[in-house]
Amino acid sequence: MSKEAEKEQAVYTVMEHMASVQQKSQAFIDRITKKGSLSQNQIMLMFLLQLTGSLNITDISERLVITPGAASFMCDKLEDLGFIERVRTKEDRRVVNIVLTGSGKQHILSLFDTFALTDLDKISAALQRIDELMGGMLQ
Q1: What are phi and psi of 88, to 5 degrees?
Q2: How far apart are CA 38 and CA 51, in angstroms?
Q3: Is a pLDDT exceeding 90 seen at residue 91?
C-alpha cells in the first residue's frame, strides 16, 4: 500500500472514530439528562460552573454558543430550582457572577449514580488521553 493510500485510510479511520465517539457522547449526555427535567445546556452549564467556580453571563453565552439573553433565561430557571445563584463581585457591584449552589453540586453528582466507579475511571482516563492527543495536534 502506498504512503498516500495509508494516509487516506488513516484519515477515514479517524473520521469513523470521531463520528462514533460524538454519537456515543451525545447518547451519554442524553442518558444523564433523561434523569430530570433539565436541558442539555442547563446540565452543561452546571458542569462548567463546577469546573470553573463561577462564570458571568457573557462567558456562559460564549462557551455554550447561545445569546446572552438565552444564557440569562437559563440561569433564571436554574436559580428558581436552587441550583445556582447570582453573586455580585466586591470589586464592581455591576458585575454578576453565576455560581453553583450546594444543591446544584449534589444534583450533578446524582446524575452519575447509575455508573460504576470503575466505568467512570475508565471513561475519564480515555477522555484525558483523547484531550491530550487532540491538544497536542492543535498546537
Answers
A1: -80, 140
A2: 19
A3: no
Nearest to 77 by CA among 47, 112, 39, 115: 39
Please tell me the pTM assigned to this model: 0.79
Query: Is there a contact between 82 and 101 (Cβ–Cβ < 8 Å)?
Result: yes
Give the chain's domains with CATH numbers. 37-110 (1.10.10.10)
Side chain identity, residue 104: G
Say whether pLDDT at 92 is over 90. Answer: no
What pairs with residue 6 in β-bridges?
none
- Of the pLDDT bands very low, low, confident and very high (cuts 50, 70, 90), residue 135 is confident
Percent of the chain clearing pLDDT 90 (strictly above): 70
| All cell numbers assigned to 127 | 477522555
Question: Any idea what DSSP says for residue 95?
Answer: -
Terminal-residue alpha carbon distance, the chain: 30
